[in-house]
Amino acid sequence: MELSIENYIEEKNIKSCSRDAKLSRKIQSVSEFMKSNEILEKDDLKPVHLIVSSQDSLASTNTFNSYVHNPNVQPIPKDLKVAWDNIEKFIKALWD
């Protein structure tokens, strides 16, 4: 996800965050860009705002980071599917 976000920032020349910003800040910048450029609507971006605003939600950047880097944290398949369903439009918009 982080590489997709960084690629989008680079392609769209989004200046509102630096390359070394935290993932949550990058997601927020891309989300704001998509909203202001009418790429996605506010309702489509709501799940994305939840990801960056809650450190402990099942779909937070903190939790996703733990899935990747902490062998003691395993996603529950159903939770992972729900998280994907919630952010699917956002992820697809990154690559359109």
In helices, the fraction of residues equals: 55-70%
Order of helices and strands: HHHHH
Largest sheet: none
Multimeric status of the protein: single chain
User: What is the overall number of helices?
Assistant: 5
**Nearest-angstrom radius of gyration?**
13 Å
Query: Based on DSSP secondary structure assignment, what is the total number of beta strands?
Result: 0
How does the overall form come out from the CA principal axes?
globular
Global structural class: mainly alpha
Q: Average pLDDT across residues?
A: 91
Low-pLDDT residue spans: none
The percentage of residues in β strands lies in under 5%
Number of domains: 1
Distance between the termini: 15 Å
Structure description:
It is a single chain. The protein is mainly α and 96 residues long. It contains five helices and no strands. The protein is globular, with a radius of gyration of 13 Å. The model has no long low-confidence stretch (mean pLDDT 91).
